[in-house]
Amino acid sequence: MARKEKHWEDDDGRTIADMSQVKRPSLFGNLPGSAYQREEQPEEREEAKKSPPWVDDSLSKQDRHAFFFGTMKASLLICAAYLVGFGVFILILTLLFR
Known about the structure:
By secondary structure, the chain is mainly α.
C-alpha cells in the first residue's frame, strides 16, 4: 500500500535550506567500518598534527604550578564556605529543636 503524498496549502515549493549534503552522524563516533565516515578537509588534517588546544607551551613549569595551586586554593575556599554554612545550619537546628 503506497503512502499518499502530503500536500500543504501554504507550500510554494521553494527550498529554504538545502540539506541534501548533510549526513547523519554516527552514534558511536568515527569507528572503523562505520557506514557514516566523516570526510576530513585538508585544513582539518593539518590542524590534527598540531599540539592539542589545552596544551599551552607559553607558560613555564613554575607558572603552571602557580596556576594549578591558585585554582586549588580558590576551590578549597569555596568548599570551606559551604562547610561553614552547613555547620551553622546544623548548629541552628540543634539549638531550635533541643
